[in-house]
Amino acid sequence: xxxxxxxxxxxxxxxxxxxxxxxxxxxxxxxxxxxxxxxxxxxxxxxxxxxxxxxxxxxxxxxxxxxxxxxxxxxxxxxxxx
Length: 82
Prior knowledge:
Helix content is 68%, strand content 0%.
């Protein structure tokens, strides 16, 4: 039971770190390319509100990350770099 609790805590911390990396990286890329949320929506097919949430620390699904990366002609790992 204690081992499961430790694993849950580690996964939560990892999730928090991923959220922060995606938030920061997505904002950087969007600003570098002078893209509005609407522009990003058109490129990725991801809803404007979802994109807003991603930049505000919302934990996106892997499928959503993949769509954003593909629309920006990046790999998912590019969104996870610091």
